[in-house]
Give the backbone structure.
Amino acid sequence: MHQATFPALGTTAVLLVTEASALAAAEHLLRAELDALDRACSRFQADSEVRRLPAGRPAWVSPLLHDALEAALWTAEATGGLVDPTVGEAVARLGYDRDFAEVAPDGPRVPAGMPAPGWWRVRLAGDQVVVPDGVLLDLGASAKAFAADRAAAKIAGECGGGVLVSLGGDLAVAGETPDGGWLVIVGDDHTRTDPGDPVVAIASGGLATSSVIRRSWRRGGRTLHHIVDPRTGDVPEPVWRTVCVAAGSCLAANAASTAALVLGREAPVWLRGRRLPARLADMNGHVSVVAGWPEEAVVAAR
Amino acid sequence: MPDQWYRRIDQRDEGRRRLSRLTRWTAAAGVALSSIFGVALAQHDRAAAAPTDPTQDQITNETGDDGGAPPTTPSSGRGKVIQPPAQPPAPAHTRGHVNSGGS
């Protein structure tokens, strides 16, 4: 297995390829893809394409932003609105209004949340979009997963062999599957491995982990994080700290893992009903698995 | 006898007039209340619409805030359901290639 790792999109990009000769070209493709995505979709760059969209009137969008918007709207529809790109205002109100490295770790109480305006108000047709006045888009819940799927498919198509693209722990695989599958360590934090973290093998599609452990901060004595319930505009009730889901694509897996955090106690039934294998760790570290996710011999509380 | 007869006719006519007035007032009140509730609900929806489960009809028929917005027309071929994996993850008892965790 041949690997490249570099910072991108405010997190870590990991590229694995099965063919050594493909690594340099694959890394070049991945870097170009992620740079383009950042220019199109970043909520924090004033000159990004999404930030420059006019309010309330049709605007032409690049093919990349179109596809990213479509992925975000698909995510919203497929989750019944549990993961909604119109939560931008709510996320900003909670304090996440700049690159996370610049978000103050503590601060005064923030105003009460308001429900998100609703993803269905964003109109996307052909290569035009209308973002209603007052709606602030946040593509953060889907953009990395969308990019992982897109980059993995592109690299496999152009470079051959097997490819795994991981963006902050949300990963997509494409092309040939290595013997024994792609081996993924599942935990709370994509930057480290804790004792007892299980390893699973996947052969296709994607796998995503959503967590309230990282990207968290405090306001008025409350711990806040980047997962917002669109129905309230506030962070969801803390039931799960980490949910990992396997699905037919990284985008699908990420939609489900984020929705599960929003759903809280209803998440296992919701995931099981959709035949989505998942591993859910509650706030005390107790693990539940559903829909064919491998049972763990030791369920550790950390 | 004729006096009684005329008095009953007058009473019947008076009853009909009262019933007619009541019907008109009821209808007017219904229209007014419908308008008030309609305006109130529309304002609430505009200010803070809770994301319920919108149907495809809402997506394609809503005209949008600017009145001229194009409808959303997904073309990715993903369908509307979250596709499960071809096969669930298998347990592995070896070192992993990569980590998946919160970011």
User: Anything to note?
Assistant: The helical segments of chain B are 2-48, 56-61. Chain B is about 50% helix and 10% strand. The beta strands of chain B are 90-92, 98-102. The longest strand of chain B covers residues 98-102.
